[in-house]
Amino acid sequence: MKPGQVECKNIVLAYGATQVLKGITLTVKPGEFFALLGPSGSGKSTLLRLIAGFNFAQSGQLTVDGSDITQTPPWQRNIGMVFQNYALWPHMTVERNVAFGLEERKTSRAEIAMRVKDVLALVGLTDFAQRRPNQLSGGQQQRVALARTLAIEPKVLLLDEPLSNLDAKLRVQMRQELKSLQRRLGITTIFVTHDQEEALTTCDRIAVMDQGVIQQIGTPMELYDSPVNRFVANFVGTINFIEGDVEHTPTGSTFLSDLLGKIALPAITPDRATTRAALALRPHTINIIAEPSSPTGASRGSINVPGNILEREFLGEFVRYRINANGTELIVDQLHQVGSEIHATGTNVILEIPPKALRLIW
Hints:
Helices cover 23% and strands 36% of the residues. It contains eight helices and 20 strands. The strands form four sheets. A six-stranded mixed sheet has the order 6-7-8-3-9-10, with helices on both faces. It has a five-stranded antiparallel sheet with strand order 13-12-11-14-20. Helix 2 (94-104) packs across helix 3, helix 2 packs parallel to helix 4 (138-151) and helix 3 (109-122) packs across helix 4 (138-151).
């Protein structure tokens, strides 16, 4: 299978007066595992179905390897899609389900037999060839749907929330198998999900969507560490926002807030004298000190603020605290180890905030 490059150029799609996709432009590189991530109604599944050929844009262009397929019907695109509900024929065996797409393409019997055998071995279902879908587990059904799509040797593989019907433990197992299989095949794959953990752990790059607009495209680490706006910061992982104002002076810029006071910022091109903004801070970057030996925190280079623990949750790998810090509520995650200190609700603590963990969000 030769991987294809997918390009969307200013795609606009509307249902009546409702714009669902608003000027979508992106490039998925050959062999890339790419995710469309966003909440329900963000347009991610609509975009995936458009790439498959089940939706058509009012304007814009869709190309695969430079060839315009904007108006090409789905059966002529050589793009394979695995649906959320798998869409298996219940009366057919696994073998016949996998062969179905090849039969529709008038492939020879010998070629069908060879390809079916190969893809069933690839997904670990050789011994299940004569079973029917209702005799398989959810994970096995998902593999059958994947095998059926791979059998036609598509240039691009589309996955529409294929793990959503599985239980939590099986989801983790299947996403690892999907990633391993994609790496072995090198096939260009576009994966739609609303689950940030699935996208972060599986994909090379991610497009975060909201209300039909791509908010940011980047690697998982780029999106997590350097979100470009509040939506991305809030949607990808858990985040704290510390509200304040950016003040520009002849010598530089500062951030002013009730919680942190005045903090120097890197050089910023000012739009106006004072701009309302926020500093974004991930919960795991904050450290809790029960009895600080140095209240100012100067020796550690941190910003220290007092807080009172309102609630706590034990989440296994870490303990999550909700803390009132001078009127600002912060979420703080502390790594849990056997014998590590657990802070009680109502305890007064000091929070250590490293300046390098703060990111300015407009």
